[in-house]
Each structure stands twice: as structure tokens, then as C-alpha cells.
Automatic annotation (TrEMBL):
It is a multi-pass membrane protein. It is found in: Cell membrane. The keyword Transmembrane applies. This is ABC transporter, permease component associated with salivaricin lantibiotic. InterPro entries: ABC-4_Integral_Memb_Prot, ABC3_permease_C, ABC_permease_BceB-typ.
Length: 654
């Protein structure tokens, strides 16, 4: 019988077994082809990339994607090779040479990979069309989607070449395995007895300490300037953190988990139960086989959750921060008296007078001779404070839909508007000596600080809210003043019409700020980053879930005779299913728990290093992260249910 005929029959006979492998590889190739089509779409790239940054990112991520696809297909190939070893041993007994078996495996790989590639190209082409349409709609890009072909010729060519290169690598890997494997080991590989693992308490403690120390190192960034990340440097600390977490996780899986389960094994009240007496010894016995997979999955899931959480945070935070950067929907400093009237008239014509409220505020610019000045004093275009009357402040907050915090102030007290949150309240109680004309001085005491800035930071950073009496007294001294127009209204922050109405009127005003325009710029600037990170996230989820699936299916298949023995010992079908469920749950919860812990610490580090927190409310920042982690938990929960069902069907085919 020809090898091609045997290969076709094998694939057809084991179609149910190969189906998830085919589907998972097809999904990964779908993501890969979609990414290649997007990165090779010259029309799209010209619209979203002006400085070449996106092209650089796509080249970097494409290399990473190719390495990841190769890794996943290699892992899957090893899984199927183990499943086929007994069959290959029989072929050897029938007189087939190892070269013939290699050819058989290569033909099967070609059949499955070609099927996955065809599915991936078809689904990827449709996904690419959908992404182009979605990005065009989101960013208001004028793109004729009909001019973009469904199948990108270059993407098809590169994907096909890459898949055939992967098949070549897999064939070399299979040949290496067949060369060093004897006939007896081919037939008996599935039943190879594992060497019992030696539990070393010192290694268990060292692993736990290293892993926890690595995660503590990650969250040390919350100490700000006092953290090791600032005093030693980001590069050495980042490398140390990754090494400690990776090595610590390896020791925890190899030594701490066996030590922990040995302790559980000695607790008779826990061990002598119908399920625990099977699952705990079996886990300890199989720890050497499972260790590499558990370590890889723990780190892979940590990366998956970290990328997913950072993607959500990257998209959410800049948009949320716009509420502080530009507190009003529209605002601008009034450079000429007629500017305010022209702006109001333009809005009346565009959206109607009943749709907005406008307030003009005047800030007094003043210098200080104090030594203990806050950071905000020097953050503006020119060092100094901008004084605002308390009544103007409260009216403006009310217009913006915020609740006024202060109704009155004592004569020489003030409220300092902070740029960043200061939990230690270091500025409260400070006395700032303000410089007045004719060498006069005025001492102002900071009663409290607030994050409710009334004016955008492009106009005023060092804002001091003072009593009306002090404000009116200083306003007559000839100090420099800034008049600011703040405009708000229902849904005005998202109004393109309002922004378009004011843009021609204020085209020469560089400090004109619009919440809508700023949000659009952020979405436009980050959309490519978000899209590229999304490709990685989807790929990580598919790989992690599929590896968990294949590993559990493999373990259940190898141990099928053990379940038959349990049945003869009196275990009911329901109890055997409970044993299987406990084993699968253990293989899911251990890497997910470790990965979740690492990812949370990593996200805290990411937020501390790369995000300038001006919201001052950490719970707001971590809401999208928490949602992302919950979604990830649901996805892995679905994978668990699919795996459990497949394992049940493997043990109980009928």
C-alpha cells in the first residue's frame, strides 16, 4: 500500500482526534494571515502611519508571530508523535524503514497543514476585511474598501512559504526523534516508567522565595522615586525580575509542588477519600512528565494575561485621562475680546444655544519667593501660580457636572490643584509667599489639595483657589491675567459638530482644546498598537488553551487502562468522571493561578513605569485590567469545559 494512501486513511480514520489540532492550527494561521494582510496593506498603512512607527512594529511582531507559530506547531507535532509511537512500532515490525515512516509523517503533516492553511487564508481574508472596515469607521478614514482585494497576493505567498518551512522543520525534528528511538521504545514508549522525583526541601523553599521575590520586585515600582527601579535602573531590574520569576517558577513546579503534595499525602484525613487517593499520588508520580508543561504554561499564561491586561489599560487610560487634561468639553484662552463672541455665535449656528453653557474665567498670574514650592509651580509654560476665585471655581465645577468640594475659605487659605495624586498630602499646611507689586508680599496657606482642576493643563497647571476677597484685592494690582472660555453641555465632549464649528474660528489659537479632538487623536494614535497587541493576545490564548487541551487528552489516553482498573475496583462511571475532572482541574488551576499572580504584579509594574497616573484613583485604572482578567478567566473556563468533555469521550466512547 502506498504511503500516500496510508496517510489519507490515517487522517480520515482519526478525523475526530485531528479535528481540534486542525482547528487550532487554522485559528493560529488565521491570525497570522490576517496580520500579514494588514501589514502588507499599503493603503491602510499610509493612512495610519506617518512616521514609519507602525511599519517598524509590524516587522518586529511578525518575527515574534512566526517564532510563536513554529513553537506551537512543534509542540503539537511532539504531542501527536507520542500518540503515534506504538503505531510506528507496528510499522517497524511489518518491515517499514524509518525513512518510510518519516515520509508517512511528513505527508500527514502536509495534509493537515495545507487544510489549516486554506482555512486560515479564507478566514484571515474575511477578518482582514472586517478589521479594515472597523478601523476606517473608528478613525473616520476615507478608504474605498472595494479597492482592497480580498486575498493579498504577497500575504498568501509569504504564508505558504512560511508553512512549508515549518513542515520542513517538523520533518527534521521527527527524523531526529526516529533516529535515536529503538524498536522496543517505539512500542513501549507510552508505558515508560517514570523515575521517582526526589523532593528537596531546600530547592522548594528557594523556588518559592525566588518567585515571590521576583513579583515583589515588580511591585516595588509603587514606591516611586525610592524604588529600586529608579535607584538602580529599569534594564537591570527588569532582567533580574524576569530571571527570578522564571527560575523561581521552575523550582516551585519541580520542588515545591511535589513537596506540598507529599505533605497532603501524609494527611490521612485528606488522602483517604475516594477521589484524593487516586489524584494526589498520580500527580506526584507524573510530576516529572508534567513539570515542563506546567512551567511553560505558567509563564505562557502570565504573558497572555499580561499582554491582554496591558492592552486594555493602554486603550482605557489615555481616554479616561482626557477628563482631567481637558475638564471642559471645549476651552481656550481668550486672546482677543471678539474671540469669545465669535465662538459662541459659531456654536449657536452649529448646535443651538440650548445645547451648551459657556463661562468666562479670569486667572491671575503671580510669582512666589518661597523655597518649598510644589512641583506644579514649575510645570506650566512659565513658572508661577494661577489664582482663581472660589466662586468661579465652584460655578465652573457645576457646569462640568462635578460636585463643589468647598463652599468657603478663610481669608489667607487656599486650595492647591494637584497634577498628580499625593496620598501623603505634603503640600497641606505649606505657606507660599506671593510677590505683589511695589515689593509687597502676601502669605497664603494651603488648606487642602484637590484633583478637580477647573482649567485644562495646557493653560494652567499651578492653580491656586483663593477666597473671593483675596482674588478681588489682587485683581486691582495690575498683575498679569489670563481669560479662559470654558464650554460644556450634554454629550458635548463627544460632539464632532461643536469642534468643527470652533476650529475655523480659533485656528490661530494654539491653546484651543477639545475633548472630542483629543480623544480622537488618542484613538487614532493608539489604534495600530492596540490592533497589533490584539493579534498577540489572540495567538497566546489559542496556544495556551490548545496546549492545555492536548496535554490533558494525552494524559487521559495514556491512563485509560488505569480507569478500567478503577471500574473493576468498584468505582462508578460518575466517580471515574470525578477523578478525571479533578486531574484536569489541577492541570488548569496550577498554571492559571501562578500565571495570574505573575501577571497582576507585572501589570502593577507596567502601570508604575509607563503610565503617568494623573487620575489619582487607582481603582479606576484597574477596572479595565480586572475586566480583562475576568474575560481571560471565562475563556480558559470554556477551554476547561471543552477539555473535560473531550476527556470524558476518550474514556467513555459510548
Amino acid at each position: 500500500m502506498k504511503l500516500t494512501t496510508i496517510a489519507f486513511k490515517n487522517v480520515r480514520k482519526n478525523l475526530s482526534f485531528y479535528s481540534l489540532y486542525l482547528f487550532s492550527v487554522a485559528l493560529i494561521l488565521t491570525v497570522f494571515f490576517t496580520f500579514m494582510s494588514f501589514s502588507l496593506n499599503d493603503i491602510m498603512m499610509s493612512k495610519i502611519s506617518e512616521d514609519g512607527r507602525v511599519e517598524t512594529m509590524t516587522r518586529t511582531i511578525s518575527v515574534f508571530l512566526m517564532a510563536f507559530v513554529l513553537f506551537y506547531m512543534s509542540y503539537s507535532n511532539q504531542f501527536f508523535m507520542k500518540r503515534r509511537m506504538k503505531e510506528l512500532g507496528i510499522y517497524t515490525l511489518l518491515g517499514y524503514r524509518k525513512s518510510a515512516m518519516l515520509a508517512l509523517l511528513t505527508i500527514e503533516n502536509i495534509l493537515i497543514s495545507l487544510g489549516a492553511l486554506l482555512i486560515g487564508i479564507t478566514m484571515g481574508a474575511l477578518a482582514h476585511k472586517g478589521i479594515v472596515a472597523g478601523v476606517s469607521l473608528l478613525l473616520n478614514l476615507e478608504i474605498n474598501t472595494s479597492s482592497i482585494p480580498l486575498f493579498n497576493g504577497k500575504a498568501v505567498f509569504y504564508s505558504a512559504v512560511f508553512v512549508f518551512a515549518v513542515i520542513l522543520v517538523l520533518s527534521l525534528s521527527n527524523w531526529r526523534l526516529l533516529r535515536k528511538t529503538t524498536l522496543l521504545s517505539l512500542v513501549r514508549l507510552e508505558k515508560t516508567v517514570e523515575k521517582p522525583i526526589k523532593v528537596r526541601v531546600s530547592a522548594a523553599i528557594l523556588g518559592l522565595l525566588l518567585m515571590i521575590s521576583g513579583d515583589l520586585l515588580a511591585i516595588d515600582v509603587i514606591r516611586g522615586k525610592e524604588s529600586l527601579w529608579k535607584t538602580i535602573g529599569v534594564a537591570p531590574m527588569g532582567l533580574s525580575m524576569v530571571l527570578m520569576i522564571a527560575v523561581g517558577t521552575s523550582f516551585v513546579v519541580y520542588s515545591f509542588l511535589p513537596y506540598l503534595f507529599r505533605k497532603l499525602e501524609h494527611r490521612k484525613s485528606l488522602l483517604y477519600k475516594d477521589i484524593a487517593i487516586v489524584t494526589i499520588p498520580k500527580f506526584i508520580y507524573r510530576i516529572r512528565t508534567n513539570a515542563k508543561t506546567l512551567i511553560m504554561l505558567s509563564l505562557l499564561i502570565a504573558g497572555t494575561l499580561g499582554v491582554f491586561g496591558s492592552t486594555a489599560l493602554t486603550m482605557y487610560y489615555p481616554v479616561a485621562a482626557v477628563n482631567r487634561i481637558i475638564p471642559s468639553a471645549l476651552e481656550f484662552p481668550i486672546e482677543k475680546p471678539e474671540q469669545a463672541d465669535r465662538a459662541v455665535q459659531a456654536l449657536n449656528e452649529a448646535i443651538g444655544s440650548e445645547q451648551f453653557t459657556a463661562q468666562q474665567s479670569t486667572l491671575i498670574k503671580i510669582q512666589s519667593q518661597s523655597d518649598n514650592l510644589p512641583a506644579e509651580y514649575a510645570l506650566g509654560r512659565e513658572p508661577g501660580f494661577e489664582l482663581m476665585a472660589l466662586s468661579d471655581y465652584n460655578r465652573l465645577l457645576h457646569q462640568q457636572g462635578k460636585k463643589a468640594e468647598y463652599t468657603q475659605l478663610e481669608e489667607t487659605h487656599s486650595i492647591l490643584v494637584k497634577y498628580r495624586s499625593d496620598p501623603k498630602q505634603r503640600d497641606v499646611g505649606q505657606i507660599y509667599r506671593l510677590s505683589l507689586p511695589d515689593n509687597q508680599l502676601l502669605d497664603i496657606t494651603v488648606r487642602d489639595t484637590t484633583l478637580f482642576n477647573p482649567i485644562g493643563f495646557n493653560i494652567s497647571v499651578g492653580t491656586l483657589i483663593v477666597p473671593d476677597e483675596i482674588y478681588h484685592r489682587l485683581s486691582g494690582l495690575g498683575l498679569p491675567e489670563i481669560s479662559v472660555m470654558s464650554i460644556d453641555g450634554k454629550n458635548l465632549r463627544d460632539s464632532k459638530a461643536a469642534y468643527e464649528a470652533l476650529r475655523p474660528v480659533l485656528k490661530d489659537n494654539p491653546y484651543f482644546a477639545s475633548s472630542y479632538a483629543r480623544t480622537y487623536d488618542i484613538m487614532s494614535g493608539n489604534s495600530s498598537t492596540f490592533l497589533l497587541l490584539s493579534f498577540l493576545t489572540v495567538l497566546f490564548f489559542i496556544a495556551a488553551g490548545s496546549i492545555l487541551y492536548f496535554h490533558n487528552i494525552s494524559a487521559v489516553s495514556y491512563e485509560q487502562s488505569d480507569y478500567e482498573i478503577l471500574g473493576k475496583m468498584g468505582y462508578s462511571k460518575k466517580k471515574i468522571k470525578k477523578v478525571i475532572r479533578s486531574q484536569i482541574l489541577m492541570m488548569y488551576t496550577i498554571p492559571f493561578g501562578i500565571g495570574l499572580f505573575h501577571s497582576i504584579c507585572g501589570l502593577i509594574c507596567y502601570k508604575g513605569l509607563l503610565i503617568d497616573d494623573i487620575l489619582g484613583q487607582s481603582w479606576k485604572i484597574f477596572v479595565p485590567v480586572a475586566m480583562a482578567l475576568v474575560i481571560a478567566g471565562v475563556i480558559f473556563g470554556i477551554y476547561y469545559l471543552i477539555t473535560r468533555r473531550a476527556c470524558y469521550r476518550t474514556v467513555f466512547p459510548c
